[in-house]
């Protein structure tokens, strides 16, 4: 579904390519991805999950205006299915996730990888790996990590990440569009804090976008790797069968006699 909200924010918009600035929400189920989309749009176009199952079964979008007279900047927020959904097979989750590209024909300005503040868990690493497998390693340069349920100021957040972030996250952070931002969805300041971080990343990128061509190539590469894995597994099973011969199952029967 698509909703439009006219919103006034007194910030300087960056020069952009044709079409609205496109922000794609990415993350695991239950970390505040849809809530973050609501914070950005200043409305409630996205249904928020209150459990382990994702409310975002399909892609959803919302449009809003960032107005700084006499200029304005159109935004489109795209909410994607949780990458660690508990009700769907992994391949189906990735298929539904990939559909978001249909809603951003002019490319992606920024991916917002949403993580609930706390321990960076194995499911977050798996979600980051799945995101990069589908969108390409180069997508990191167009990615901003948004920590939800986070009350730390920027300096405190930076220090905490330097001391405690796992190695996988430490490696990824320098390749991203800007430093992570921490927000508490529902706080009065959350929208402005997040919008300023988004503006900073988009301005640093010079308005450049991650293209659908790059997304298509990344997806083709992912599909090719999956097909190669299936072929290698089938070949390994075939070789094992040739070495071991047919499998014989012996059963012992007890014949009761009166």
Describe the structure.
This protein is α/β, with parallel strands linked by helices and 258 residues long. The protein is 38% helix and 17% strand. It has seven helices and seven strands. The chain has helices at 33-41, 90-98, 122-135, 154-164, 167-172, 190-204, 212-244; strands at 2-5, 21-27, 60-68, 71-79, 110-116, 143-148, 181-182. Strands 1-3-4-2-5-6-7 form a seven-stranded mixed sheet. α3 (122-135) crosses α7 (212-244). The chain is globular. The protein starts with a strand and ends in a 14-residue tail after the last helix. 36% of the residues are buried. The model is unreliable at 1-16 (pLDDT under 50).
**What series of H and E elements makes up the topology?**
EEHEEHEHEHHEHH
What is the helix tally? 7
Cα end-to-end separation: 73 Å
Structural class: alpha/beta
Approximately how much beta-strand content do the residues carry? 15-25%
Primary descriptors:
alpha/beta, 258 residues, globular, disordered N terminus, single chain, 7 helices
Short synopsis of the structure:
The chain is of the alpha/beta class and 258 residues long. The protein contains seven helices and seven strands, in the order E-E-H-E-E-H-E-H-E-H-H-E-H-H. The protein has a seven-stranded mixed β-sheet.
